[in-house]
Amino acid sequence: SSLLNPAFTGTIPNLTLNSNYKRSGNPNQQTFIELMQATVTYPFQKVTSKSYQTGGAAISFFRESRGAQGLYTLNKVLLTGAYRMRLTRLTHQYLVFGLQGGIALNGIDKSRLNWPSQFSQYYYNLGGIAGKNPDPNANPFNGTNDLLYPVFNFGVIYNVYDNENYAIRDKSLTIGFSIDNLNRPIVSYFPGEELRKFWLVKLFGSSKMELGARWYIYPSAFAAYSQGILQVNAGTYFSTFVSSPRAKNALVLQMGSWYRVGDEIIALIGFQVENIRLGLSVDLNSQTYELQKVNTESGSQTLPAYEISLTYNLNLSNPLGN
Question: What mean pLDDT, rounded, does the chain reach?
Answer without folding.
Answer: 83
